[in-house]
Amino acid sequence: MWKYGFFLTVVTSVWATSEGPWGVAAIPTRGKPEYSQRHSFAQAELKCFHPINWKSIARTLKTESGVKDAAACQRLCAKEDQCTHFNYHTDSHNCELKIKNGSDVVEAANVITGPKTCSSSCFTLGVGHTAKEMARSERKYSPFDCQSWCRDTNGCFYFTFNL
């Protein structure tokens, strides 16, 4: 049975939602979903971004200044072929367009990190897995990080990201 909070399946996260209690979002990369559960999510425009105060340490393609918000920064990234994700600095309004996998993040004040797009059409939200042998990972901060971790982990066919 699913539990709210720190239910460990493959990956855990401490990402609170804006709509009440902790929710569960399971996102398979391959394989069949086996269990459905109700869930709640953060604001639509921030649902695929890392929580505030985390930044990517990947190589920077370029930095744009005077960018209004994280959503505008994401749109700039989407226009660049090489950009894979971004850092938006809420205090300086600088937007760093990043290259390579964005799963390496460090704690940093006033920064929002997110992927090139928030397309989650390959994700199944509100679905979990009941596999008997599930690996565990260190904490990941977005479904996209979990997907990258699973893709790079031998033997991983699907993952569960808990809000």
Summarize the structure in words.
β5 and β6 (94-98) form a beta hairpin. The chain is an alpha+beta fold and 163 residues long. The protein has a four-stranded antiparallel β-sheet, with helices on one face. Strands 1-10 form a two-stranded antiparallel ribbon. The chain has two domains: 24-44 and 120-162, no CATH class; 49-115, Hepatocyte Growth Factor (3-Layer(bba) Sandwich), CATH 3.50.4.10. 12% of the residues lie in helices and 23% in strands. The chain has helices at residues 70-79, 143-151; strands at residues 24-27, 35-36, 54-56, 60-64, 85-89, 94-98, 105-107, 111-115, 127-128, 159-162. The protein contains two helices and ten strands.
Question: How would you describe this structure in keywords?
Answer:
163 residues; alpha+beta; Hepatocyte Growth Factor; 2 domains; four-stranded antiparallel β-sheet; two-stranded antiparallel sheet; 2 helices; PAN domain-containing protein; Pan_app; disulfide bond
